[in-house]
Amino acid sequence: MTTAATTDEATRVLLEAWLVTDVGVVRDHNEDSAYMAADRGFFIVADGMGGHAAGEVASAMAVETVKKTLEEAQAEIESFKKAPSDAGRRALVQLLQSAVLQAHQAVYQRGQTEPDKQGMGTTLDVVLVAGAEAFVAHVGDSRTYLVRDGRSSQITTDHTVAEVLVIEGKLTIEEAQVSPLRTILVNAIGVSADVGVEMAHVTLKRGDRILLCSDGLHDYFPVEEEIAQRISAEKPGDALKEMVELAKTRGGHDNITGVAVLVSDLHEGVPSTISSDSTQPVDLTGNPFASDEPTQTAAVPPPPKPVPSPLDAGGLKHTQPMRAMPDGEDMGSATTLPPPMNDKPADTKADKKKSAKPDKKSDAKTDGKTDAKTDGEKKDAAKPEPDDAVPTQPIATADTGPAKVQPESPKKS
């Protein structure tokens, strides 16, 4: 267990975190990668795809690249904790976007230079906690949830064809949950030259829980009330282990990974001085839990000019604008959108090998995610022994410093 102290005037945030990953009951190896650093306030989950070992290479590269970037930026993060401001907030948003884009470039370039890894890719979810604020970066169909007061809200949007069709009104949520199109990604790390980065922001409260997970977990918990009930348990780490075991008994078609984070304490101090660039909390109203759509969350007004889609040709550095979860008792409600589809999906989780090696024969599917998600005959694949599961990592704690603010006005498109 590690601890970190702040000054008496600071907002004190104490985090506890747990990581559980399991190969599942169909796969013969684990292509998920994850990392948690409660003492530094960041958490990462990546779900790789690709033939042979390419999926696990992609996810491991993405996690390591983001980890290194955030570790090297600790001075910048600590500066924001001590004196939160709009400029500092924009800097952290840019930092997270840059970390994800660097991960994308690293995976993409390796896929271009090594024939056996051509087309490999990964999803990527990153949460950075700085003071009482959490910044979220997201690509793909892994998910990040906020659980507050026994209620759950999905912060991120699935970057899948099914989600796009739901937004366009062509599929209902219930139809999307069973549609094979839910496994076709329109956005992924490392698969094509361009990527879109979805950003979100949450002002934390004492007792909040954050769950980052791959689809091997959330696919078996389609009802957010069950996620809320389990992660709200007194011991979230034990609850996460139970969820992983339940996912296995409910099918275990994929690798299963989750990171649970608990805001175990949050004491808001008052700084002795406030700089002219500092911002104060802004209350937003609304309640996403009253909505019929579980992926709705709070949003702020869009920027004056539309941001071009990062999936369109021309700008690797284009990212999805940031949106925010409010600071009030309720979390607000507004539809969220994934990056728009181009003519050719970035990746197909229903047939990950097809996307990972588009010019190869179908025998490249041996490690693709689809073999478990769509082919019933794969269900009789050898189950791992109980010791295949990676045990829960020890609890890590940290005091992440001051902050209590709302982001500026960009909105997730």
Structure description:
The protein is of the alpha+beta class. Strands 2, 3, 4, 5, 6, 10 and 13 form a seven-stranded mixed β-sheet that branches. A six-stranded antiparallel β-sheet has the order 8-7-11-12-1-15. Helix 1 (54-72) runs antiparallel to helix 3 (86-113) and helix 2 packs antiparallel against helix 3 (86-113). It has ten helices and 15 strands. The two termini are 40 Å apart. It is 25% helix and 21% strand. It has a single domain (12-272, 319-399), classed as PPM-type phosphatase domain (Phosphatase 2c, domain 1). The longest helix is centred in the first third of the chain and has 28 residues, at 86-113. It is globular, with a radius of gyration of 20 Å. It has helices at 54-72, 74-82, 86-113, 161-167, 173-178, 215-218, 224-231, 236-249, 352-356, 370-373, and strands at 12-22, 32-37, 42-49, 121-122, 124-130, 133-139, 143-148, 151-154, 184-185, 198-203, 209-213, 256-267, 322-325, 347-348, 396-399.
| Measured distance between first and last alpha carbons | 40 Å
**Record field, number of beta strands:** 15
CATH topology: Phosphatase 2c, domain 1
Please work out how many helical segments DSSP would assign: 10
Classify the helix fraction into a percent range: 25-40%
State mean pLDDT (0 to 100 scale): 74
Shape label: globular
Number of domains: 1
Which range does the strand content fall in? 15-25%
CATH H level: which superfamily?
PPM-type phosphatase domain
CATH architecture group name = 4-Layer Sandwich
Q: How would you name the oligomeric state of the polypeptide chains in this document?
A: single chain
Output the CATH class name.
Answer: Alpha Beta
What can be said about the biggest beta sheet? Answer: 7 strands, mixed
By helix and strand content, what is the structural category? Answer: alpha+beta
Radius of gyration from the alpha-carbon trace, in angstroms = 20 Å
